[in-house]
C-alpha cells in the first residue's frame, strides 16, 4: 500500500503555478514571493526597487524567481510585466497586486500636499486597477487564474493610520464589492 502525505502535498500546493507579485521587492511582497516559491510556484518579482528585487530573486531559487522592473502607475510597464511573465512561463495563474505606499507622513490633513496624495492614489488604487486589467486580459481567455489585491485595515478602522491611506483603501474596498 502506498503512503499518502497531506503535509507533502500541502507543502507544494502551488507546484506548476506562475505568480506575478507587484511590490515584490520588500515587505509583504518579498515574504509572499518566498512562500510561493517554497510551495512550488514560479514567481515574477515586480517592483521599482531594482536592487532589492534582484536580491530577493538571488536569495530564492533562480529557476523559480525572476525580477522585472515595473512602475505600477505606468500602464505600459504593467502590460510589459504581464507579457514577460507569459513569454517566460507560458501562463499567469496568480496576480498579486501588492505594491503600495503610505504617502504623506504627517497625519494632519491641513498639512496635506495634493501632489503626494495623488501619488498615493496612483500607486495604491490605479496600480491595482492596471494589474487587475492586464492580468484579466490573459486569464479570461483561458478561464482560469486568481487576482489578489492587498488593502490596508485603515480602510475599515478609522484612525488606525494616515488619512491618505484610509481614503485610498476605502475606495479600493468599495470597488471590489462591486
Automatic annotation (TrEMBL):
<dbReference type="InterPro" id="IPR002347">
    <property type="entry name" value="SDR_fam"/>
</dbReference>
<dbReference type="Pfam" id="PF00106">
    <property type="entry name" value="adh_short"/>
</dbReference>
<keyword id="KW-0560">Oxidoreductase</keyword>
<comment type="similarity">
    <text>Belongs to the short-chain dehydrogenases/reductases (SDR) family.</text>
</comment>
<dbReference type="GO" id="GO:0016491">
    <property type="term" value="F:oxidoreductase activity"/>
</dbReference>
<protein>
    <submittedName>
        <fullName>Uncharacterized protein</fullName>
    </submittedName>
</protein>
<dbReference type="InterPro" id="IPR036291">
    <property type="entry name" value="NAD(P)-bd_dom_sf"/>
</dbReference>
Amino acid at each position: 500500500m502506498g503512503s499518502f502525505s497531506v503535509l507533502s502535498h500541502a507543502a507544494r500546493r502551488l507546484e506548476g503555478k506562475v505568480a506575478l507579485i507587484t511590490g515584490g521587492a520588500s515587505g509583504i511582497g518579498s515574504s509572499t514571493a518566498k512562500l510561493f516559491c517554497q510551495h512550488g510556484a514560479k514567481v515574477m518579482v515586480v517592483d521599482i526597487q531594482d536592487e532589492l528585487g534582484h536580491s530577493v530573486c538571488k536569495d530564492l531559487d533562480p529557476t523559480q524567481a525572476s525580477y522585472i522592473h515595473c512602475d505600477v502607475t505606468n500602464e505600459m510597464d504593467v502590460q510589459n510585466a504581464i507579457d514577460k511573465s507569459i513569454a517566460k512561463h507560458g501562463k499567469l495563474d496568480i496576480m498579486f497586486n501588492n505594491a503600495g505606499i503610505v504617502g504623506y507622513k504627517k497625519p494632519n490633513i491641513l498639512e496635506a500636499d495634493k501632489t503626494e496624495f495623488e501619488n498615493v492614489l496612483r500607486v495604491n488604487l490605479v496600480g491595482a486597477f492596471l494589474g487587475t486589467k492586464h492580468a484579466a486580459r490573459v486569464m479570461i481567455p483561458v478561464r482560469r487564474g486568481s487576482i489578489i489585491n492587498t488593502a490596508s485595515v485603515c480602510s475599515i478602522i478609522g484612525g488606525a493610520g494616515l488619512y491618505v491611506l484610509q481614503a485610498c483603501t476605502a475606495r479600493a474596498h468599495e470597488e471590489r464589492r462591486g
